Each structure stands twice: as structure tokens, then as C-alpha cells.
Amino acid sequence: MYRQGDILILPVSEESVPEAVRSAPPSPRDGRGRMVLALGEVTGHAHALTAPGSLLRAPDPLTPDHLHLPSGGRLVHEEHAAITLPKGWYRVIRQREYVPGAVRVVAD
């Protein structure tokens, strides 16, 4: 299990990733070629990887994303220590918060 700020990354087996997720098109990379797991709305800083692989994002922001790193990767952010992730599949969960009448992902 890995945590970088408001991002939790859980290793999972490939078999546990739903087929609909595995067959979905990967999320596009940003202009710098990075897979951005979360972008800071206030600072513009990003939890991002430049490694080979794919980020499979659900349309609902409260649904966990999935990340496939066939050869591992390094997760970086301007305000946190970098994390080296081994090759494999991961579930990516954004921290949530309750506001009256709703649950939303944390904005930083």
C-alpha cells in the first residue's frame, strides 16, 4: 500500500480488475507525457507518472481508478517525496470528504 498526499495506491491482482476496466481505453496523458493521477486544483501540482503503462479512469470521480505499470514507475509530486512503484496493477483512490449533503474528492 502506498500513499502520497490525498492519493492511496493499492496493489491488486490483474484478476481482480473488472474486465470492463481492463478493456477500457486508457486516459490520455498530459502535454508532458505524464499519467496524472490527481491534479491540484489550487496549486496546479500533480501526482504523476512518466512510466510506460496505462491509467484507466472511471467517469465517476468517486469510483477508484486503476493503474497498470508493466515495468514499474516513479510517482512524483512537487510537495511530496517520490514513490517507486513495482510493476503490476493498482487501484488508485482519491481521498474523500463530507460536505453537508454530499461526498466529494478532496481538492488541494
Radius of gyration, taken over Cα atoms and rounded to an integer in Å: 14 Å
Give the termini distance in whole angstroms: 22 Å
Strand segment tally: 11
Note the total helix count: 1
Q: What's the number of structural domains?
A: 1
Share of residues in helices: under 10%
Strand arrangement within the widest β-sheet reads 1-2-9-6-5
Shape: globular
The overall average pLDDT, rounded, is 85
Percent range for β-strand residues: over 45%
H/E topology pattern: EEHEEEEEEEEE
What characterizes the major β-sheet? 5 strands, antiparallel
General description of the model:
The protein is mainly beta. A hairpin with a 2-residue loop joins strand 7 and strand 8 (80-85). The strands form three sheets. Strands 1-2-9-6-5 form a five-stranded antiparallel beta sheet, with no helix packed on it. A four-stranded antiparallel beta sheet has the order 3-4-7-8, with no helix packed on it. The protein has one domain (2-105). The protein has one helix and eleven strands. The mean pLDDT is 85.
List keywords for this structure.
four-stranded antiparallel beta sheet, single chain, 1 helix, 108 residues, globular, five-stranded antiparallel beta sheet
Give a short synopsis of this structure:
This protein has 108 residues and is mainly beta. Helix content is 4%, strand content 48%.
Present the secondary structure layout.
Blueprint: E1 2-4, E2 7-12, H1 19-22, E3 35-39, E4 46-49, E5 54-56, E6 65-69, E7 73-77, E8 80-85, E9 88-94, E10 96-99, E11 102-105
Antiparallel strand pairs: 1-2, 2-9, 3-4, 4-7, 5-6, 6-9, 7-8, 10-11
